[in-house]
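Students often ask why inverse folding is considered easier than folding. One informal answer: many sequences map to the same fold, so there is more than one right answer. In these notes we will look at a single instance of the problem. The structure comes first.
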């Protein structure tokens, strides 16, 4: 099988889906919630909050990476 045949197979399969489209929509919404919303609330940008300049941020990263 060539790559072209595989792509045609998947394209035709997705065109004929009925319930599958709804399931894919649910999956995409869940991924959006996981990666976007959770990042906003649970993973704040600590370097942005704790340091004023890019030089200070770079020094903090260098210090933490090179500590034994």
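Output (designed amino acids):
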């Amino acid at each position: 099988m060539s790559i072209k045949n595989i792509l045609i197979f998947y394209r035709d399969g997705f065109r004929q889906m009925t319930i599958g489209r709804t399931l894919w929509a649910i999956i995409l919404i869940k991924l959006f919630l996981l990666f976007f919303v959770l990042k906003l609330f649970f993973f704040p940008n600590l370097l942005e909050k704790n340091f004023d300049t890019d030089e200070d941020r770079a020094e903090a990263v260098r210090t933490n990476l090179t500590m034994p």
